[in-house]
Amino acid sequence: QQQVKQSPQSLIVQKGGIPIINCAYENTAFDYFPWYQQFPGKGPALLIAIRPDVSEKKEGRFTISFNKSAKQFSLHIMDSQPGDSATYFCAARKSNYGQNFVFGPGTRLSVLP
Amino acid sequence: ETGVTQTPRHLVMGMTNKKSLKCEQHLGHNAMYWYKQSAKKPLELMFVYSLEERVENNSVPSRFSPECPNSSHLFLHLHTLQPEDSALYLCASSQARREADTEAFFGQGTRLTVV
Questions:
Q1: Between β-strands B110-114 and B10-13, what pairing exists: parallel, antiparallel or unpaired?
Q2: Using beta carbons and an 8 Å cutoff, which residues of B are at the interface with A?
Q3: Closest partner residue to A103 among B42, B103, B107, by Cβ?
């Protein structure tokens, strides 16, 4: 119940394509869902996050879609660029003093020029 | 830079060695974390220090020992490690508040190789 499932494991798209990464969770106590982007040799960095009271959040080319009833959320990258090539992690957290960040296993995205 | 600094960036140690990883955060946060990142596995939360209270993952072996002398510094003491402990060790910090979005800021990690 503590797991966050993420798919696909890897993804290759052409420049300008719209990669979509999906995550699913079981624990209904989770109430904060961030996405992290990690480049090789770097730590993960927060990309965008959503709470379950909204169904969609957009920041620049990055959009999170959230389906509370299905306990699923996804990341869409519009007009993807080679610089977006990285590993993306979804995560979930319960509202108890910022602890218990549970991460998905990650998706390695490659955007071809 | 995220405001979370880890040293060293790379570490090679023998199984009989004792070493320590250091993390320092300059963000004024009150919670700090150690994560282990192994190939093809989810980030694994090892230890949390939040509001000066320690929470640990019970599956972490005792050869890993954390220390948090104050809210800005976090150490991970290592002794008699095994080759399977080779991984990227990430430190993170956040501001622990009950009703706020407490994102985690990560350091760049220490790449540990146990030989």
A1: parallel
A2: 2, 4, 6, 31, 33, 40-43, 45, 48, 50-51, 55, 90, 92, 94-99, 101-109
A3: B42
Closest-CA distance, A52 to chain B, in angstroms, reads 12
**What is the per-residue pLDDT across A1-44, written as a single tens digit (0 to 9) for each?**
568 999 999 999 999 999 999 999 998 888 889 999 999 888 99
Phi then psi dihedrals of residue B85, to 5 deg:
-80, -5
Q: Which of helix, strand or coil describes residue B85? A: helix
- Each residue's pLDDT tens digit, B55-111: 777 789 999 999 999 989 999 999 999 999 999 999 999 887 666 657 889 999 999
Determine the Cα–Cα distance for residues B47 and B32; give it in Å rounded to an integer. Answer: 8
